[in-house]
Each structure stands twice: as structure tokens, then as C-alpha cells.
């Protein structure tokens, strides 16, 4: 603090006093403060948050007081306490400065060195409206009748309330100017709550006089404080949440309650009854029995959370206490509700989502590392453990935090640090609200240096030798929000870890029962198993166990944001055990926040990924961000395919070559699926990447087998050999659960015996199928040649000439249709292209498809729909065979191709989506119809892929409403809590596509 100069010093200039407004020197002369004996007053003025505002206010007050200024001037020179209070408040709050100028004699209130108690506050507010105790059967200690009715009562109430607000603000701000005691935040919050109680007691007296002017109080009416007022931790400017209970709940009771809200909102602060049963749509006033019936049958989890702070504040206190006694037991059993965890998670996300992204770093109340983070965490722990520990039955956030620490539910150091950060943010919130007496929680923008500097001074920030007051403020905001973010996860998980691993001998440990309760409340369906996993991860005295104990609070917090933390924790345990000898693994989780967060999201979302990541752990490194974005999507499909083929080509043994290809496939599947779950790839990119990997593995296996047979024969192969991709493989639209549909074609080399060549080719094809289909923990590699001529009854491999002869004479409509997706995939490229030229006249008939063939295609499609849809499957949500699903769209597109590709070359495409683009361009279907088909195909493919990622195995049926559907919806990219909308969207999209299918495929 700057030491004031002695009286012999020259009078400091305006600039040295922090005065920048023009005319400051003249204002000082007006006040008579341009003499040496005014120096102590001037230096005190310079320490106000805004010296210019303080000086201007004093000049205005000088004009209003007239001759009375002399008394105040003497006080300001001699009474440092009064000086600190006055300069502190008029330099920090323009609204309260205006109040002092409008009521000049109120400066004398600031002679008081202490806050009035609750009874004194009540007397002051009641006297403002001449209220006297009510008489009659419904009278009580806090039921009064005012001499004034609304609206005449509002001005005196507003003035009396503002006077009391001025006093507490002055005492709160005095330390910023003079060496006055700092008013602790809990004292300020409790006093403001007492003031609100007094204010609404006075408002109730006016409401009674207004709504019931004759006769005594006609009903018993209790006003229940909720929210911050209920917890006695109110802000300077805040809504006061209330609930009304009346016996009986008559229309006159509702009129009195409504009048109380109108008077209170006009004179003091916004009075909000939205926390009542059914919210703003519900009755304003209910009887006690009606409240209880609602909470027993209809209340949501958030309503019980709100009741944590319920407190009778005025009116019939005996009725209010009966209300509290009736509802609080239900509060302490709320965590046993089946939907407790999802409701709590949904509510928290809804709060976060309501904050605009550009304000999240400036929001003291709702942003990341904010006041709500602390309050939400504390209340959740109260709900979890309060049913077994009455010591947690407290309303104040800080009291609850202290009780949680005393009971061992929160680490003592963590609780102390969290309390300090919470009080710091509440201090900033109070200062921001005092400035203009407006309800705000938003810090000034980063480029508003003047606003930030004012806040620093108002919050009693002082230079620390390295930074000025502004620098200190910014550093403290960053430090405290970061600390809250860090402690938010530790608050839940550190005590759990203490219960299984002794980290601090001075820390109380959760009992096993408490640990299980806490894990259940955090979303674990099998909390006992989860506790065993934690014990296994942190057990022993090894360095890895200690590192795990330090990492797990953050990792478990990330897992808590997934829909299957049980599976995620088990997968993390398995992964950690598999990586026990890899030092980089835990180091990466510790040093790379993105890796840790993304890995937990993957493990808690997908049953498909854990085994892949255990067997291809290097993919975990790709979860980090590179200079150009996430490393997961840095690879291009063509480069990946080239790498698989070249890697396997190093080996002469086909088994080793295929093992190398499998290893790279495993790595690529883990990479693609991880990027998919994280929303880094769209459906088209996923399908193309999976198809490219499949083609490369086929090519690598085929090349390895051919090399092996040539070694066995002691000479070159007798024939060229090619693999033709069919179905989704041919269209480069494979999903995670798709088999590889293929045709094998050979062509004897000049001079080779055809019988020997075909026999050799069958050996090659059989070995490729056997090697790729060998049992493995990886997702299956099934090579299916069932679409060959004559189906499974036909030869596995045919020569090019045999294919030509068959298709020319014997091709069935279904075989012609299947050829629409034939594409050269592996082996001899020239032979593959020759095959495609051979079948082009078959699949793209110049005159279109015959009516008989169309009828046959429709007959087969109807048979597929009726026979292949699994028993019990819901056709409205079966992604492959359901109404408007993949089969519907693909058969419709293929029928258009059969009819028109002979005349429209752009339709000669194996991709469903690209063919749809060509159909639209050729105007064969309307743009609207094409869009409906395209949307359905993408939606169904996305859902089908999500099903495999979630379940870990191929499946086509979407589940009904429930936890699994929520997991599928989340992996498919839908926001949390929107699983029902995801299913509705799927059905809506496919239903519209089905209408197009019936018109195009069935109807003409």
C-alpha cells in the first residue's frame, strides 16, 4: 500500500491520484481539498476503485448537502473508517452513489461500524410501511399488516432496502480504501439473506393489506426460500427463489402470494416462484399435502436437488417447518431413484450448453471452472451420502463442503482450496453486481482494460512486485478457475482412491459402503466391480500404482461423461495391464490432456475398440493433436493401402505376410473407429477408408499366397488371377460389420494347361479365404464368394472366358443386378479390368432391363423382405432390411441403373451415393426424391456403424428406448440426452425414403 505523504508535502496532482476526467482539479477546489492538510483524504480517494466516480459523487453530494457538507467534510478528515466506507462504495458502485446523492443524509448510516442483526433489519423494513403484528387465528411472529398498500408502499420500501444495501456494501468495500477489516464472504451472503427475509416480510405485510384489506389474515401462508437465499448465501443482486405453502390454498392465498411477488419485485429484487411444483405452469400456492403428493409421484431429480436449500423465511414459520420436515426425507433418498444419474448428467449439460461459447471463459457462474461447478459437485455429494450421514443436512455450499471434508467424503486440502477459489469468484461476482446493481456474472471482455482494472481495484487487488493490480487479477482468475476445474474431478474421485490406495496418511478414507454409493451416483451400474478395478489399478506400492492414483481422478471424470463408465473402466484396466511394460503410456496420459480425454471417451463408448487398442496401442499416440489437427485423420486411404501391401511383401511365408497385413489392418481399424467415435470422420470417409483397408489386405494376402504357390511349384503361376469386389466392397461403401463379397477370376497364361491353371486358381482362392478367415481376436475377415455364378453351388473360380459364356447364356436377374457393384479390387489389374469390360454389356443393357426381369427383381426383393428379416425385428428400425433401410435404397438405385445405364454412362458407377448424384443430374428422379434416398442411406449406414461400434459385433437392429439406444445415438453424433430424437429422426427419414421406394421400385 502506498504510504500517504505528510501534511508538509505538496498536494498531489490529479494524475497522481488516478483522476483522469477533465475538471478534476476544479472539483477538488470545489470541495476545498487543494490544501496540504487534505493530502490524507486525497490519497484515500486515490485508492477507490474509480477515483473519478468517487470525486464526481462527492461534488454532487456537496451540492445537495449545502451547509451540511461541513459536517461530512470534518468526518472525512478525522474518521478514517467512515472515509473508507464512503469512498469505497461511491468508487465501486454508481448505483449506490446515485442513491446517496438522492438521499444525502444517508451518509450518516456509514458511521455504523457493524451490521444490524436480522431483527433490526426486519424492524427497519416494517417501519417503512408502518406495519404492525397481524391478529387473528393465522397470526404469527412474522405475519404483519402494513399501514400502506401497493403501490404507495413501494417507494419507502425501496429506499429503506437500498439504505441497508448501502451499509453492507460500504462495510464490504471499506478495506479497498483504508485499512479496515475485510468482511468475509459468508458474512456478506448471510446478511444479504437476512435482508431479503426482512424485505419479503415487509412485502407480505403490504400484500396482506392490499389483497385482504378487511378482517384478519384469512389463511396460513408460509414463504419458503430456495436457492442462494435458502442457503443464506445471497448475492447483492439476485433473484430470490420462493415457494408458497398455504392452509387452505384458497384464491385469497394466491392473491396474497401474487401481491407479495409484485411488491417485492418492484421494491427490492426479482421474486421468482418458478421452482414450485410443475414450474411456472403449476399453481402458485399449494397445500402441504399437495406439495408432498407431487414430490412423491412426479418430481424430477433436479427438484430434489433444489430442495436441499429450502428454508422457511417468512409468514407462518410453523407451517414452513412442517413443509420442510415433510419434503426433506425425500431429498435424502433421491439418489436411489433409477434415473438419478442420467437426470443429473442431463441437467448439468443443459446448464453448460446454455452458455454461449464466446462467454464460457468469462462466465463466473456457469462457465468451465465456475461457481456452478463447485455448487453442483457439492450438492451431488450431499445427495449421495446425505441419506447415511445427517451431518451433511446443511444448506450453505461452504457449510456442506466443510461437512463433506469432516466426513472424509472430500479431501481436507481439496476442500480448503476449493473453498478459497469459490470465495474468490463470489467476491468478483459481488463486485460486478455492485457496479450498477445489475444481475450479472460475466467478466469484462479481454480488451476492456478499463473495466478489468476497475474490477481489480474493487476486488482489493494490489501489485505484487511483478504485476500491477490488473495483472494480479488476471493471474488470480486463471489460477482459481483452473483449480476448480482440477478439483472438480478430484472432489468425486480422490476419496474413492483413498479408500483403495493409501495416498495420504492424514486423510480420512471413505468406507466401502460410502465408496460404492459414490460410484453408483457417478453412473456405475456395478459399483462394487468398479471399486475392484480401482483397487487393482492403484494397488501395491509400485510407481505405476502411484501414477495411476494421480491420473485416475481426471480419467474417471472423463469416463463419467460417457454412457457406459463400467465398461470403460474395465477396458482401461485391461489396457493398463497390457501396457504395464510401456512407460510411454502413462506418461502420454499425464502430459497430453487430449489423449487422456479422448481415450476415456472411446473406452466408455465402444465395445469394438478396447481389444483393437490393446493389440494396436500405438494408435493411442494418435489421439494427440498435431500442428494441422488431430493425428487420427492425418493418413490418406491410398497411403494406408500402399503401406499394407508393401509391409506384407517383405515375407515369403504367406502366414507371416498375412499376419503383417492383419497387424496393419488392426491398427487402421482402431484408427478409423477412434476417429469415427470422436466425430472426426463422416460416413463417406469411414466407408471409403474401411473399403481401402479391406482391398489392401485382400491384395496383400493374394500376393503372398501366389508367391507361396510359385515357390511350391518351383516356377511361375500358370494363370493371371484377379479379385473382383462385389456388394459394398465393390462400391467402396463397407461398414464395420460388412463381409467382403468377391468373385475370383483367372485367365490361363499362353501355353498353360487350362485345367492346371483353374486347379491352381482354386487352391489360391481357398488359401486366401482360409488365411483371412482364421480365428482371431480382431474383427472377422470373412471373404464371401456367394455372389458367383450359380451361387454357392457354382465353381469358386472361373476363367474369364467361362464367366463370359455363363453371363451371355445363363445370367439370372439377381446376378445381373449383383454385377452393378463389381469393381476390380486386387490381383492382376489388367485381368480385373478385362472382366469389367466383359460384364458391362450384361449389367448395363443397351435397351434397358426387360419387364420380366423387373418383375423377378421385385419378387426376389419381396422374398428377402419377408424371409430374411429376423423374427421379432422391428421393420421401422432395422437398418439393413427395414422399411426405407439400406436394402430399400440400394435396390431402388440398382433398378434405375438397370433401366437407364445403357443410355446414361454416368450411371455406370458402383457407389450408391455417387450413382444417386448421377440420377439427380440426369433428372431420372426429382431432386427431392434423390435427397430423401441419400439421407436415408447415410442415416442407416451411420446407425449401422454405430451399432457395431457400441456392441462390438455386427448387428442391424436399432434398440428401443434405453441405455443402449443412448449409447448408439451418442456414437452416431447426437447430443447427450437426445436418444429419443435420434430414433424418431431415423424413423422419419426412412419412412419418407420408403415412400419414394414404393413409388419408384414397386409402383412402376
TrEMBL record:
Annotated ranges, domain PII-uridylyltransferase/Glutamine-synthetase adenylyltransferase: 346-492, 877-1001
Cofactor: Mg(2+)
Entry's EC annotation: 2.7.7.89, 2.7.7.42
Stretches the record annotates as Adenylyl removase: 1-496
Region (Adenylyl transferase): 504-1004
Recorded catalytic activity of this chain's protein: [glutamine synthetase]-L-tyrosine + ATP = [glutamine synthetase]-O(4)-(5'-adenylyl)-L-tyrosine + diphosphate; [glutamine synthetase]-O(4)-(5'-adenylyl)-L-tyrosine + phosphate = [glutamine synthetase]-L-tyrosine + ADP
Record key words, sorted: ATP-binding, Magnesium, Multifunctional enzyme, Nucleotide-binding, Nucleotidyltransferase, Transferase
InterPro entries for the chain: GlnE, GlnE_rpt_dom, NT_sf, PII_UdlTrfase/GS_AdlTrfase
CDD domains for this protein: NT_GlnE_GlnD_like
GO MF annotations in UniProt: [glutamate-ammonia-ligase] adenylyltransferase activity; [glutamine synthetase]-adenylyl-L-tyrosine phosphorylase activity
Glutamate-ammonia ligase adenylyltransferase repeated domain span: 85-322, 597-837
Entry annotated with the keyword Transferase: yes
Family stated for the protein in its record: Belongs to the GlnE family.
Function according to Swiss-Prot or TrEMBL: Involved in the regulation of glutamine synthetase GlnA, a key enzyme in the process to assimilate ammonia. When cellular nitrogen levels are high, the C-terminal adenylyl transferase (AT) inactivates GlnA by covalent transfer of an adenylyl group from ATP to specific tyrosine residue of GlnA, thus reducing its activity. Conversely, when nitrogen levels are low, the N-terminal adenylyl removase (AR) activates GlnA by removing the adenylyl group by phosphorolysis, increasing its activity.
NCBIfam families attached to this UniProt entry: PRK14109.1 (NF010707)
Name of protein: Bifunctional glutamine synthetase adenylyltransferase/adenylyl-removing enzyme
Provenance organism: Skermania pinensis
Gene: glnE
Amino acid at each position: 500500500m502506498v504510504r500517504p505523504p505528510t501534511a508538509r508535502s505538496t498536494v498531489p496532482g490529479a494524475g497522481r491520484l488516478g483522476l483522469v476526467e477533465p475538471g478534476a482539479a476544479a472539483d477538488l477546489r470545489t470541495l476545498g481539498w487543494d490544501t496540504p492538510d487534505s493530502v490524507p483524504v486525497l490519497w484515500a480517494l486515490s485508492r477507490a476503485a474509480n477515483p473519478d466516480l468517487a470525486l464526481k459523487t462527492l461534488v454532487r453530494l456537496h451540492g445537495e448537502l449545502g451547509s451540511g457538507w461541513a459536517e461530512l467534510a470534518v468526518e472525512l478528515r478525522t474518521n478514517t473508517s467512515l472515509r473508507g466506507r464512503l469512498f469505497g462504495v461511491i468508487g465501486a458502485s454508481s448505483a449506490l452513489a446515485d442513491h446517496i446523492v438522492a438521499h444525502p443524509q444517508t451518509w450518516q448510516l456509514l458511521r455504523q461500524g457493524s451490521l444490524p442483526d436480522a431483527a433490526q433489519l426486519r424492524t427497519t423494513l416494517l417501519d417503512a410501511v408502518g406495519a404492525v403484528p397481524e391478529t387473528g387465528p393465522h397470526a404469527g411472529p412474522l405475519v404483519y399488516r402494513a399501514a400502506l398498500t401497493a403501490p404507495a408502499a413501494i417507494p419507502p420500501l425501496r429506499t429503506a432496502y437500498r439504505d441497508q444495501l448501502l451499509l453492507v456494501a460500504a462495510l464490504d468495500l471499506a478495506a479497498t480504501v483504508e485499512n479496515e477489516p475485510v468482511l468475509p464472504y459468508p458474512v456478506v451472503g448471510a446478511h444479504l439473506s437476512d435482508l431479503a427475509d426482512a424485505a419479503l416480510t415487509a412485502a407480505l405485510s403490504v400484500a396482506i393489506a392490499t389483497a385482504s384489506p378487511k378482517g384478519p389474515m384469512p389463511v396460513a401462508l408460509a414463504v419458503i426460500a430456495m436457492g442462494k437465499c435458502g442457503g443464506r448465501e445471497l448475492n447483492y443482486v439476485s433473484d430470490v427463489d420462493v415457494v408458497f405453502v398455504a392452509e387452505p390454498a384458497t384464491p385469497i392465498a394466491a392473491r396474497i402470494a401474487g401481491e407479495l411477488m409484485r411488491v417485492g419485485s418492484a421494491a427490492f429484487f426479482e421474486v421468482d416462484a418458478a421452482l414450485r411444483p410443475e414450474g411456472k405452469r403449476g399453481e402458485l400456492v399449494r397445500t402441504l399435502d399437495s406439495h408432498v403428493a407431487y414430490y412423491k409421484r412426479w418430481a424430477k431429480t433436479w427438484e430434489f436437488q433444489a430442495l436441499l436449500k429450502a428454508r422457511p423465511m417468512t409468514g407462518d414459520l410453523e407451517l414452513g417447518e412442517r413443509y420442510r420436515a415433510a419434503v426433506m426425507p425425500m431429498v435424502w433418498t433421491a439418489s436411489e431413484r433409477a434415473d438419478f444419474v442420467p437426470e443429473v448428467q442431463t441437467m448439468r449439460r443443459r446448464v453448460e450448453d446454455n452458455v454461449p461459447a464466446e462467454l464460457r471463459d468469462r462466465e463466473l457462474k456457469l462457465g468451465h471452472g465456475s461457481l456452478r461447478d463447485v455448487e453442483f459437485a457439492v450438492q451431488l455429494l450431499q445427495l449421495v451420502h446425505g441419506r447415511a450421514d445427517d451431518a451433511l443436512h446443511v444448506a450453505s455450499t461452504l457449510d456442506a463442503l466443510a461437512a463433506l471434508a469432516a466426513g472424509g467424503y472430500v479431501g481436507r486440502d481439496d476442500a480448503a482450496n476449493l473453498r478459497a477459489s469459490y470465495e474468490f469468484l463470489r467476491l468478483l461476482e459481488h463486485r460486478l453486481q455492485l457496479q450498477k446493481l445489475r444481475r450479472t456474472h460475466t467478466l469484462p471482455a479481454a480488451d476492456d482494460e478499463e473495466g478489468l482494472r476497475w474490477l481489480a481495484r474493487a476486488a482489493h487487488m494490489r501489485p505484487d512486485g511483478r504485476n500491477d493490480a490488473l495483472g494480479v487479477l488476471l493471474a488470480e482468475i486463471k489460477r482459481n478457475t483452473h483449480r476448480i476445474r482440477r478439483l472438480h474431478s478430484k472432489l468425486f474421485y480422490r476419496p474413492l482412491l483413498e479408500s483403495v490406495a493409501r495416498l495420504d496418511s492424514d486423510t480420512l478414507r471413505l468406507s466401502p459402503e460410502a465408496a460404492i454409493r459414490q460410484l453408483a451416483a457417478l453412473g456405475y451400474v456395478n459399483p462394487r466391480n468398479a471399486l475392484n478395478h480401482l483397487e487393482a489399478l492403484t494397488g501395491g506400492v509400485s510407481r505405476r500404482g502411484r501414477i495411476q492414483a494421480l491420473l485416475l481422478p481426471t480419467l474417471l471424470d472423463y469416463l463419467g461423461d460417457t454412457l457406459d463408465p463400467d465398461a470403460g473402466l474395465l477396458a482401461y484396466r485391461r489396457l493398463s495391464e497390457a501396457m504395464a511394460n510401456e512407460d510411454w503410456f502413462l506418461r502420454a496420459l499425464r502430459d497430453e490432456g487430449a489423449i487422456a480425454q479422448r481415450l476415456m471417451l472411446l473406452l466408455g463408448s465402444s465395445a469394438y475398440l478396447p481389444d483393437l487398442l490393446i493389440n494396436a496401442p500405438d494408435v493411442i499416440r494418435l489421439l494427440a493433436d498435431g500442428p494441422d489437427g488431430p493425428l487420427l485423420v492425418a493418413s490418406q486411404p491410398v497411403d494406408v493401402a500402399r503401406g499394407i501391401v508393401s509391409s506384407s511383401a517383405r515375407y515369403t511365408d504367406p502366414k507371416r505376410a498375412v499376419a503383417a497385413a492383419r497387424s496393419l489392418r488392426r491398427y487402421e481399424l482402431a484408427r478409423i473407429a477412434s476417429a469415427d467415435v470422436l466425430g472426426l470422420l463422416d460416413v463417406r470417409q469411414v466407408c471409403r477408408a474401411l473399403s481401402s483397408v479391406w482391398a489392401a489386405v485382400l491384395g496383400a494376402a493374394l500376393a503372398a499366397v501366389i508367391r507361396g504357390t510359385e515357390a511350391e511349384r518351383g516356377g511361375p503361376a500358370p494363370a493371371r488371377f484377379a479379385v473382383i469386389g462385389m456388394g459394398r466392397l465393390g462400391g467402396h461403401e463397407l461398414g464395420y460389420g460388412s463381409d467382403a463379397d468377391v468373385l475370383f477370376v483367372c485367365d490361363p497364361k499362353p501355353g498353360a494347361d487350362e485345367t492346371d491353371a483353374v486347379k491352381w486358381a482354386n487352391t489360391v482362392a481357398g488359401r486366401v479365404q482360409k488365411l483371412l478367415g482364421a480365428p482371431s481376436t480382431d474383427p472377422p475377415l470373412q471373404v464371401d464368394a456367394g455372389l458367383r455364378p450359380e451361387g454357392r453351388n457354382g465353381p469358386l473360380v472361373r476363367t474369364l472366358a467361362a464367366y463370359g459364356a455363363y453371363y451371355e447364356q445363363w445370367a439370372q436377374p439377381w446376378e445381373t443386378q449383383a454385377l452393378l457393384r463389381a469393381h476390380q479390387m486386387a490381383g492382376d489389374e489388367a485381368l480385373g479390368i478385362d472382366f469389367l469390360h466383359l460384364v458391362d454389356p450384361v449389367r448395363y443393357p443397351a435397351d434397358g432391363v426387360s419387364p420380366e426381369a423387373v418383375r423377378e427383381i421385385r419378387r426376389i426383393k419381396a422374398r428377402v423382405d419377408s424371409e430374411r428379416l429376423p423374427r421379432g425385428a422391428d421393420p421401422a428400425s432395422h437398418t439393413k432390411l427395414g422399411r426405407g433401410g439400406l436394402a430399400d435404397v440400394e435396390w431402388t438405385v440398382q433398378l434405375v441403373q438397370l433401366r437407364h445405364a445403357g443410355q446414361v454412362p454416368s450411371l455406370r458407377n458402383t457407389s450408391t451415393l455417387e450413382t444417386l448424384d448421377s440420377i439427380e443430374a440426369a433428372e431420372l428422379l426429382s431432386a427431392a426424391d434423390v435427397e430423401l434416398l441419400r439421407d436415408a442411406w447415410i442415416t442407416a449406414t451411420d446407425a449401422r456403424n454405430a451399432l457395431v461400434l457400441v456392441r462390438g459385433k455386427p448387428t442391424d437392429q436399432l434398440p428401443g428406448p434405453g441405455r443402449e439406444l443412448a449409447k448408439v445415438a451418442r456414437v452416431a453424433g447426437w447430443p447427450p440426452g437426445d436418444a429419443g430424437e435420434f430414433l424418431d429422426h431415423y424413423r422419419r427419414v426412412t419412412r419418407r425414403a420408403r415412400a419414394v421406394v414404393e413409388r419408384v421400385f414397386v409402383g412402376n
